Amino acid sequence: MELSPWLLRLEQRFGHWGVPQLIKGMVLLNCLTLILQYLQPGFADMLSLNTAAISEHGEYWRLVTFLLQPIVSDGQLSWFWFIIAMWFLWFVGDGLERALGPLLLNLYLLLGVAALAVVALTLYPGAVIPNFYLLNSFLFAFAAFYSDLPIMLFFIIEVKIKYVAMFAAVVMLLGGVRSPALLPLMAASCAGYLVFFGPLYAQVLCQRASSRRRMKKFRGEE
């Protein structure tokens, strides 16, 4: 998928300002956080996007450090799923940096963080906001560039990345249907995706609608 011309010009002109390997750095710091969490239980809670801690105690670092809070469920397989998730994030981040360039990838992340921070502090007072939806938006962007790329799901099943992204989107939307209060949170987390790719999809839809109108007009003239 081709990006909007203004984004391409932005990368060409200011690309040297971008921070390279940012997603890989996030992966490494997530691993470090998980180790520290096991050594000192409760450590990861100090990094979470806890809106009460931010608004009442001025712990503004949480607006950034929540990206480093590992998503780990309880159980014996927690480490396994964490490794799979971090490997996948590394893989997706590497592909996005090649497609976007460091600056645009930084901007993509910044848009999501900024929108999520505003929505969280405005609509979810006292809540702890997960980073799952924001990290999920990287998968959607990756699929926009590499839709037909096959991956080995769980190292067993070969499937195209676009189907993985579709499944993740359906799961997220179903979660929003069951809990409508989460919809603003999901939309904010996907702010980067909406800004980068929303206008392109809108343009495609307009072109298709225009083609259908011309076809109907042509058939009517027949």
Please give a structural write-up.
By secondary structure, this protein is mainly α. The chain has a single domain, classed as Rhomboid-like fold. 69% of the residues lie in helices and 5% in strands. The protein contains ten helices and four strands. The strands form two sheets. Strands 1-2 form a two-stranded antiparallel sheet. Strands 3-4 form a two-stranded antiparallel ribbon. The radius of gyration is 20 Å and the shape is globular.
Keywords:
222 residues, mainly alpha, Rhomboid-like fold, two-stranded antiparallel ribbon, 10 helices, 4 strands, 69% helix
Reading off the top of the CATH hierarchy, the class is best stated as Mainly Alpha
CATH topology, by name, is Rhomboid-like fold
**Strand arrangement, largest sheet?**
1-2
Please summarize the sheet with the most strands.
2 strands, antiparallel
The radius of gyration computed from the alpha-carbon positions, rounded to a whole number of angstroms, is 20 Å
What's the arrangement of secondary structure elements?
Blueprint: H1 5-14, H2 22-39, E1 49-50, H3 51-57, H4 62-65, H5 78-100, H6 102-123, E2 128-129, H7 132-145, E3 150-153, E4 157-160, H8 161-178, H9 183-189, H10 191-221
Antiparallel strand pairs: 1-2, 3-4
Helix pairs in contact: 2-5, 5-6, 5-7, 6-9, 6-10, 7-8, 7-9
The gist of it:
This protein has 222 residues and is mainly alpha-helical. The protein has helices spanning 5-14, 22-39, 51-57, 62-65, 78-100, 102-123, 132-145, 161-178, 183-189, 191-221, and strands spanning 49-50, 128-129, 150-153, 157-160.
